Amino acid sequence: MRPSQEASSVRSAMSDIRHSLVRRDALSAAKEVLYHLDLYFSSQLQTAPLPIVEKGPIELLEEFIFHMPKERHPKPKRLNSLQELQLLEIMCSYFQEQTKDSVRQILFSSLFSPQGNKADDSRMALLGKLVSMAVAVLRVPVLECAASWLQRTPAVYCVRLARALVEDYCSLVPGSVQTLKQIFSASPRFCCQFITAVTSLYDLSSDELIPPKDLLEMVVSWIFEDPRLILITFLNTPIAANLPIGYLELAPLTGLIRWCVKAPLAYKRQKKASLSNGHVGSKMLPKDSAVCSDQDCHAMYSKLHLSVLQVMMILQGHLTEKNLYGRLGLVMFDHVLPLVEEISRLSDELNPLNATSEIELSLDRLAQSLQMAMASGALLCTRDDLRTVCSRLPHNNLLQLVISGPVQPQQQQQPAHTSLPPGFYPHIHTPPLGYPAHGARPAHPTLPSVQSFIPGMTFPYRPLH
């Protein structure tokens, strides 16, 4: 069938479906459109492994699920609160009962992939409620679809979903975080993507963006139980030569490093603001943060920092195994720059408050993180790069050691790099992925195929005990 004939056939099929739905009540129409599109995509997948989602199915979903009016069509009936809850139950049941993951994924993507139109707000609102319900009733297929959505959707939308879940489980009802916490064993893949999203959202740039205590405690408990949790997306994703800009990272390493390094200064800044106002204002602090004592917060961030360092210790082996050592930076140097600038600004701002110990702790953690990231191949840069970036920071003995001398790789672990002259990081001499080779250096070889995530299949993920 020619492309024009195929497109005409799709339009005709969507038109027939619409005519059958337009006279139904809002809930029945929403349920029927899911049924019809399930049949449609199941048929499409029999002829093409990755069918292109046409405009017609998207428009049907926008009209009968998100209730966006179409040109020359009457305004669709909207669901009331009870009907919306019933729709969410129907959707949860559908994704739970649909046994073909490919059909689930394409319908979930058709429902919730942003289209850049007025329906996106309704789309995101319904997605937040659906994933929140899936967490409450432990619908793993929905969580797995949401994990894929987080991986292929621009970060600006991912943080909206993360914020909705944090509000539902860390703010609205005290103690409800235990429900969110239980998905650790049910869907580790979703947990990894959720951590990446919340570390992008809560960047500690202001007091409102300090992670709530319940969220922090949950993330620390997940990662401390098994640090390799944060590598699941990286281990199970085919790696492209050019990673897309504006999407979540393959691993939340940068975000977690930011949490650990900025935390001492951010909490000191928060205390300064509360003291200057003579009280702890509700608008000044994130909810539940007041019950997080200095000692509790210090202990949690210390545990998190240890876990992140442990992850980077094992990361070198995974990068080498995938032939990505020195060619793929999971900690982007471009993200280190604003982190260092923020530390410098906070240090200058807090110095009059005798924040010497907080500044020292922050710089110690920064030095340890940079050292481990460079030694493991997660951070691709030279010592000269670090000297330039860190030149404005207050003096710190450990940081000075890191930027003054290289980390010598162990001969037993890196036999392939023994021919390099001493005093160099091995990965400095291979162009990173996505960057052109310098001078006459040959281009890097084609990347090997990487095993992708297959639902129901095991992956290299073993708890540390």
Distance between the termini: 57 Å
Radius of gyration: 25 Å
The whole-number mean of residue pLDDT values reads 82
**Structural class of the secondary structure composition?**
mainly alpha
Low-pLDDT stretches: 280-291, 411-465
Order of helices and strands: HHHHHHHHHHHHHHHHHHH
Quaternary organisation: single chain
What percent strand? under 5%
Most strands sheet: none
Structure annotation, total helices: 19
Report the strand count. Answer: 0
Instruction: Provide the helix percentage.
Output: 55-70%
What coarse outline follows from CA principal-axis ratios? Answer: elongated
What does this entry look like structurally?
With 465 residues, the chain is an all-alpha fold. It is 60% helix and 0% strand. It has 19 helices and no strands. The chain has helices spanning 3-21, 26-47, 55-64, 81-97, 101-112, 119-137, 140-152, 155-172, 177-181, 183-186, 188-201, 213-225, 232-235, 253-276, 294-321, 333-350, 356-376, 383-390, 397-404. It is elongated and about 75 Å long.
